[in-house]
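Hi team,

Below is the intake form for 28S ribosomal protein S34, mitochondrial from Rubroshorea leprosula. Please confirm the fields before the structure is written into the shared record.

FORM ID: S-0412
PROTEIN: 28S ribosomal protein S34, mitochondrial
ORGANISM: Rubroshorea leprosula
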Amino acid sequence: MATTVAQRAVQNQPFGILRLSLNFVRNLSTVSSSTQNPSASSQDAKKPKRRKKKNLFEVAQFLPKWGIGYHMAKTHWTNVSYQITKINLYKDGRHGKAWGIAHKDGLPAADAPKKISGVHKRCWRYIPHLSKPAEITPNLMNLTENATETEAQVA
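The structure came back. Fields below:
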């Protein structure tokens, strides 16, 4: 039994040397590639990082009154948006529920607000040119009505 173990050890020696030489070659190849990696990582550092898209609440947190009255839409929607009417936030401020009036091509598609689905998905954006049009037109109407009243009083 001892002789068979000794014979196997003698037979495995050439393979052991071959293994050592293969390991040595592998180590050389990894060392040379690691010297190339820092230049590659510096190139990666020059590339601009992609910004993480935001869910509806992360977009709304920077708007007055958490975006109530403002228009928001998913990035892949075209000519469709929601005018936010109500928001229920959870404690962390990044999750909750939202309701709004659907708008198509800037005109209301429905009279009553409905619950907005997909508010936690990271694809929401604020639409500035559609927001708060209702506040601008009444102010203009009030100014023209006031101007006609003052003209009538002067005359």
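SUMMARY LINE: Residues 135-141 have pLDDT under 50 and may be disordered.

Thanks, M.
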